[in-house]
Amino acid sequence: MTLIAQLQQCLGADQVLTSPEAQASYLKDWRGRYQGRAQAVVLPTTTQAVADVVRFCMSAGVPIVPQGGNTGLCGGATPDASGKAVVVAMTQLNRIRSIDATNFSITAEAGVTLDQLKAAAESVDRLYPLTLGAGHLTTLGGTLATNAGGLQVLRYGMTRDLCLGLEVVLPDGTVWSKLSGLRKDNTGYDLKQLFIGAEGTLGLITAATMKLYPLPAARALIWLNLPDVSSAVDRHALAQTVFAGAQTASELISATTLSLVRQHLPEALLPTAAGPWPEAWALMMEVSAHDADFLQALLAAWQRACAAAGVNTGYITTAPDAQAQLWAIRKGLAESQKREGLAIKHDVGLPISRIPQFIDEASAALQKRFPGIRIVAFGHIGDGNLHFNLSYADPVKNVGLIAQSAEANAVVYEVVGRLDGSIAAEHGIGQLKPTWLAQHAPAGSMALMRQLKATLDPQGLMNPGKVLV
Predict the structure, then answer these.
(1) Helix 47-60 crosses helix 3-11 at what angle (to 10 degrees)?
(2) Which strand (E) or helix (H) includes residue 421?
(3) What order do you get walking across the sheet with 385-391 strand by strand?
(4) Residue range 181-197: mean pLDDT, rounded
(5) pTM for this model (two decimals)
């Protein structure tokens, strides 16, 4: 029996897509940079079905490419051009298995979207905090596979920090499951951490138990129009001192970035009371509390601290409509860039104190090598994660720039390395950065990762070409 026949018998013919038309949306990444081919795209609905698919593929020597909502930015869920792979789309593993409001935990399958997860948590007056712009598409499994960060890492941590347990189909088709909601468990190695951030190269995540938090009763947003990045770093530090654990987000956005939003997303409007659009940098900070009076006390403390420091408090709003307007601007940044066209994207991590130096030195080096280059910089200043994207406004010149991606990357990553940063903060490695990972990983790391890969996946069939080269 052929592999396709086995898959059809196991899953049903309608869950095994073989025609180019049916497969099309699964073979191209969200940015439109990578286009692959596959002999089949399968849509399993249970963990056992995923295990069967893995066993069939391993027996046939066929590569497996897992895929969630296909919103990744590094090509990690796109097959190569050989047409040999089977894409395992997890979107139909989409059940909330249980919610334990008292334990502040939720167990859900890999294909549940972030918005669905948030809604399920809110139904029991709880918060699932991971927030991304594409939450209606992004899946739990995808965020675990890439260890996604998002907008509220400052308060709640990365996806890794939110995970209490996993269910994983291993490369031999067996299922390893430890979905308990325990916060403390020192019974041997913390095996779930092997699979979080591994992008499906060590196994396929099928379900997870995640932390929940109290649902905030009150929120405020502060929007600051600032002349430079150093001012933003200083103001963030002041906010950390005043708000401490109540600060849930701190976002830095350049005026160049905002100009793309204004051009491509005219529906994203700055509230009138916030004043004019920034000419240099904007800093957007969220504060959350479980009591409206306590929030007002925090905001009063912020105003006192700013007065003592001789700086502007910024535009402060507790109105839900105005906050939604501001978040629409922030969440629209990626979409506005997509509409503008291809860019060379960098997702770097830096000590917060060194962000101004990085922007100054990387920008100067890039302008010297690529005169007139447009730098679209924004990110999560609260956790040191900067998105530093490069393009030309002229489409013809931009095509030439994309062809020189390796040279532009070398310029950026040299500065990142010199400032003790990371070349991959939250987007993963995928097929975009394996070579750069090999160059910048700490000594011994690549050998250890390859040894682990060879032990768990000796045939090298789990998402090949991703993370490791």
Answers:
(1) 170
(2) none
(3) 315-317, 218-226, 281-289, 247-254, 374-380, 385-391, 347-349
(4) 95
(5) 0.93
